[in-house]
């Protein structure tokens, strides 16, 4: 789902590669469309309190202005060629800087300074004495030569862009492909496409429009996540479950699942360790095939099945129960040194710290097979009653009911 964010850039890249003379490229009234897109996404980001995106939007706006003012003439003109040499490098470096450094909240002095810098940095290039700098760099002149004769992209630009994209991809995979970073990568990719196909009509407008659309998609996915995904377990939560139950087919079943003696567990090991257990249980449930797992609330989870075969249901649920019961949970015990110095001293003197201990948890499961025409509420209620029976039976078991 998260890779949806990159779809607009990929579509633009494909169109540029396969059909660069497509009428679409000249169909929109630029620059108005690009400015409207930037203003629209900025208003939404403000409305949704996702002000972090305004740094990227400010940079996109500054960049678009610089391109409109400085890159609309033939690249054979020295001033245009110089701007073309420095603007992509500056863009890649600034976007890399924005990703890597902790960004202050917008409405602080540092935040406002960062916002203004993001917007004005590309614009400043229009007024800097670039030809003087060029004269000062004779030894590195080859860096400004094109990599390919067909594209004006220079060695310097290609190296910086490649380094920043490589850093981005490494960071993305290290951090498990978070959505915001995919949106930020989309901005860089859009600008890269623009520099690669510089001669394409209206491409600066399209690149800005597509980059704004990618940020809009990221915002939408973030909002969807806030509304539907439980932060602790990363499973969809009750609101998503209700939506799913309203679309249930004739043959389906719902299971309520609850951690046994969880209050005692919390009291013994602490609420934080209890949270870790719920996170882990969420990960185990998310991996199960043939069912969709939800966090219902507290230590209760719901599993939804799209079949009504009692034998198969029992087998699947027993498997889940067994998997959880067999899972060794490593718990840090109280008495563990709080700082590493004390820990080192304890280890060197052979003293035993609190260390960790392996414990097991169990779950009880109550499953109800859907009756013809049964509404979600009574179905959930029956699953809850089955869960209650499982608890009464002694816990760590499955109770299945079809009526
Ligand atoms: N750590 C943690 N605990 C939670 C969370 N949500 C609910 N709980 C705890 O889960 C416990 C549920 O306790 P009970 O409903 O009495 O059930 P139980 O102790 O699991 O006993 P049985 O269900 O009868 O086996 C309470 O102590 C809640 O505080 C959570 O998000 N994190």
Automatic annotation (TrEMBL):
<feature type="transmembrane region" description="Helical">
    <location>
        <begin position="54"/>
        <end position="71"/>
    </location>
</feature>
<keyword id="KW-0472">Membrane</keyword>
<feature type="domain" description="GGDEF">
    <location>
        <begin position="250"/>
        <end position="403"/>
    </location>
</feature>
<dbReference type="Pfam" id="PF00990">
    <property type="entry name" value="GGDEF"/>
</dbReference>
<dbReference type="GO" id="GO:0043709">
    <property type="term" value="P:cell adhesion involved in single-species biofilm formation"/>
</dbReference>
<feature type="transmembrane region" description="Helical">
    <location>
        <begin position="181"/>
        <end position="199"/>
    </location>
</feature>
<dbReference type="InterPro" id="IPR000160">
    <property type="entry name" value="GGDEF_dom"/>
</dbReference>
<feature type="transmembrane region" description="Helical">
    <location>
        <begin position="83"/>
        <end position="101"/>
    </location>
</feature>
<keyword id="KW-1133">Transmembrane helix</keyword>
<feature type="transmembrane region" description="Helical">
    <location>
        <begin position="113"/>
        <end position="133"/>
    </location>
</feature>
<feature type="transmembrane region" description="Helical">
    <location>
        <begin position="205"/>
        <end position="229"/>
    </location>
</feature>
<feature type="transmembrane region" description="Helical">
    <location>
        <begin position="27"/>
        <end position="47"/>
    </location>
</feature>
<feature type="compositionally biased region" description="Low complexity">
    <location>
        <begin position="348"/>
        <end position="357"/>
    </location>
</feature>
<dbReference type="InterPro" id="IPR029787">
    <property type="entry name" value="Nucleotide_cyclase"/>
</dbReference>
<dbReference type="InterPro" id="IPR050469">
    <property type="entry name" value="Diguanylate_Cyclase"/>
</dbReference>
<keyword id="KW-0812">Transmembrane</keyword>
<dbReference type="GO" id="GO:0005886">
    <property type="term" value="C:plasma membrane"/>
</dbReference>
<feature type="transmembrane region" description="Helical">
    <location>
        <begin position="153"/>
        <end position="174"/>
    </location>
</feature>
<dbReference type="GO" id="GO:0052621">
    <property type="term" value="F:diguanylate cyclase activity"/>
</dbReference>
<protein>
    <recommendedName>
        <fullName>diguanylate cyclase</fullName>
        <ecNumber>2.7.7.65</ecNumber>
    </recommendedName>
</protein>
<dbReference type="GO" id="GO:1902201">
    <property type="term" value="P:negative regulation of bacterial-type flagellum-dependent cell motility"/>
</dbReference>
<dbReference type="InterPro" id="IPR043128">
    <property type="entry name" value="Rev_trsase/Diguanyl_cyclase"/>
</dbReference>
<feature type="region of interest" description="Disordered">
    <location>
        <begin position="331"/>
        <end position="359"/>
    </location>
</feature>
């Amino acid at each position: 789902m998260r890779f949806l964010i990159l779809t607009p850039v990929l579509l633009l890249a494909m169109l540029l590669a396969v059909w660069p003379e497509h009428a679409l490229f000249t169909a929109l009234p630029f620059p108005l469309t690009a400015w409207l897109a930037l203003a629209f996404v900025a208003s939404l980001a403000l409305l949704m309190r996702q002000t972090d995106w305004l740094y990227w939007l400010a940079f996109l706006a500054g960049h678009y202005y610089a391109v409109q003012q400085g890159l609309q003439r033939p690249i054979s003109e020295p001033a245009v060629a110089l701007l073309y040499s420095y603007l992509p490098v500056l863009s890649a470096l600034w976007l890399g800087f924005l990703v890597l450094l902790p960004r202050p909240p917008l409405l602080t002095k540092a935040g406002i300074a960062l916002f203004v810098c993001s917007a004005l940095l590309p614009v400043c290039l229009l007024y800097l004495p670039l030809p003087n700098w060029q004269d000062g760099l004779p030894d590195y002149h080859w860096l400004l030569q094109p990599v390919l004769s067909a594209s004006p992209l220079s060695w310097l630009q290609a190296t910086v862009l490649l380094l920043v994209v490589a850093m981005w991809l490494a960071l993305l995979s290290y951090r498990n492909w978070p959505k915001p970073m995919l949106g930020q990568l989309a901005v860089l990719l859009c600008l890269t496409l623009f520099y690669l196909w510089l001669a394409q009509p209206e491409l600066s407008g399209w690149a800005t429009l597509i980059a704004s659309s990618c940020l809009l998609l990221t915002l939408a996915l973030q909002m969807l996540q806030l509304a539907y995904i439980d932060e602790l377990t990363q499973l969809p939560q009750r609101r998503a479950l209700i939506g799913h139950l309203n679309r249930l087919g004739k043959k389906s079943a719902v299971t309520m699942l609850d951690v046994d003696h969880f209050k005692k567990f919390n009291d013994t090991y602490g609420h934080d360790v209890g949270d870790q257990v719920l996170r882990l249980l969420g990960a185990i449930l998310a991996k199960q095939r043939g069912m969709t797992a939800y966090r219902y609330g507290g230590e209760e989870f719901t599993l939804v099945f799209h079949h009504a075969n009692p034998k198969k249901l029992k087998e699947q649920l027993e498997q889940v129960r067994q998997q959880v019961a067999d899972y060794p949970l490593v718990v840090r015990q109280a008495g563990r040194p709080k700082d590493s110095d004390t820990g080192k001293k304890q280890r060197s003197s052979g003293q035993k710290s609190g260390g960790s201990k392996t414990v097991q948890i169990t779950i009880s499961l109550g499953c109800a097979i859907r009756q013809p025409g049964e509404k979600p509420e009574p179905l959930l209620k029956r699953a809850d009653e089955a869960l209650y029976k499982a608890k009464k039976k002694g816990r760590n078991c499955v109770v299945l009911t079809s009526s």
